[in-house]
Design goal:
alpha+beta, globular, 4-stranded antiparallel β-sheet, about 160 residues, 4 strands, single chain
Length: about 160
């Protein structure tokens, strides 16, 4: 069986950043999957499910309400390894194209106060597994350590 694209990335050299994971054609449309890597794989502790769940709720809510990106957003959700998230957008995009909206999204997550959208028994299958305080911390860490000073080395997968 052939390895899928995400398993061919050298996770021993991978650092936090925004990477194009893959591009796929759906009819005439290109969709771009981005790897929003928040922690260094196999070197830092992974994120716990509660904060990942909160980031997912807030991030998806933000993207699906952003006037410029709501119609381009196909998916936002966690990686199984809990070192980051995948964002899938309609369009043939580069990492640099999404830095502004991803930065705004993580600022939204960092600054969010109040009830977490969709965190009720009616709306979510595991609504109690949330941690807003850690979501704030991790969003701020990603902003300060990665997004605010992102460079080409953190937008292209290492060899």
């Amino acid at each position: 069986m052939e390895k899928i694209a995400s398993f061919t990335v050298n996770h021993l050299k991978l650092e936090p950043g925004i990477y194009v994971s893959r591009k796929d054609k759906v009819g005439e449309e290109t969709i771009t999957t981005f790897d929003l890597r928040m922690t260094t794989p196999n070197k830092e502790p992974v994120m716990n499910t509660a904060e990942v769940h909160t980031i997912e709720h807030l991030g998806a809510t933000f993207l699906r309400n952003d006037p410029a990106w709501k119609d381009k957003t196909i998916y936002f959700g966690p990686m199984g390894c809990r070192t980051g998230f995948y964002a899938i957008f309609a369009g043939d995009l580069a990492s640099r194209d999404i830095v502004p909206v991803i930065t705004k999204m993580y600022e939204f997550i960092r600054d969010y106060e109040g009830e977490i959208p969709g965190a009720t028994a009616h709306d979510c299958g595991n609504y109690l597994d949330q941690n807003l305080g850690m979501a704030h911390y991790l969003a701020n860490r990603y902003l300060e350590n990665t997004l605010y000073a992102i460079d080409d080395a953190h937008m292209n997968y290492p060899a």
